[in-house]
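User: My collaborator sent over this chain with a note saying "see what the structure looks like." That's all I know about it. Can you take a look?
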Amino acid sequence: MKLLLTGAAGFVGRNFAVSVTGSAGHRTLDVTRSTTQAALVRAIADADAVIHLAGTNRPRHPREFDEVNAGFTAIVCDALRADGRALPIAYASSIQAGLDNPYGASKRAAEQRLMRHAEDTGAPVAIFRLPNVFGKWCPAHRHSVVATFCHDVARGISIEVHDASAPLQLIHVDDVVEHLLDAVLRTRPGTTFRAAGPVHRITVGELAGQIEAFERERRTLAVDRVGHGWLRALYATYVSYLPTTSFAYPVAAHADARGAFVEMLKTPDSGQVSFFTAYPGVTRGGHYHHAKVEKFLVVRGRARFRFRHLLTGETHELDTDAATPTIVDSIPGWAHDVTNTGDDELIVMLWASEVFDRARPDTFSAGTGT
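Assistant: Without extra context I'll predict from the sequence alone. Here is the result:
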């Protein structure tokens, strides 16, 4: 589809354009503040649907609320009506449209103009009353507390929290993009008010604490549960604000005559990831675990893994190398070690099912028997 995109130069607009043209294969017809009336008319004539994002929430003068939010919406509706086609429209309104303030009143007026357009022309109109939208490319120190906190914490700047208990309703820009696109792909008759969830509710203090925790992860290596949901979105947002000087960070290497051991990542409930090296002929390990499980993957060199059952004395050994990627498990109750049988330095990736705890290590020398 060819999607007329107003507000294309804004935060949500840039995310929308990159997302739908890169993965969904659609094309956007971009409308910005510099677009002329004639160019707008030509874009509408070429469009299959309208994504209406243009607006302002912090203008230099209050009259711009009406001029941009309500006024430009009327211009778009008039141009659409003159085109003569009932193009589907998705409009990014605000939860403040229900409030009695200049910004909310202007967004409510824009909604009402779109509703009249739907009634007059039969065009399907989807209105999204969005809460605070966050995500990559949102300008800091303007209208997004998430952007400001992420930007400052990523640069070692102390953040100010004036009211830690103040509530926030937040929605990730990727979810907004998905729902806006869906609204013009799967239209419904008339005007519909739609949600672009999920919406996450949090206090300003909780938000600040979580973003500061992301920064500490680079020192502690203890990453939070960032694989899905709210934390996935917030973590991705924080990382997107890192300056290029912080794209990489060092970790400690514990080296001795055998080689080196380096921890990479620790999780709350899924163990940790590390790697170790061993020089030719060197044997590492020689211990057992009661409940901890480890997974080894040779990424350079050749290795021999040896196992011995603590009760029966049964032994087992196997050889593996980087040319044939193979996961080797350590088995509770079996002592195990690994020897570099090659001519080069051995490098082995290691996942352990629990984070190493010096107070309760569950790692015992195979010579102690306990």
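A starting point for your reply to your collaborator: Helices lie at 11-22, 37-46, 63-83, 102-121, 145-154, 173-185, 204-220, 229-240.
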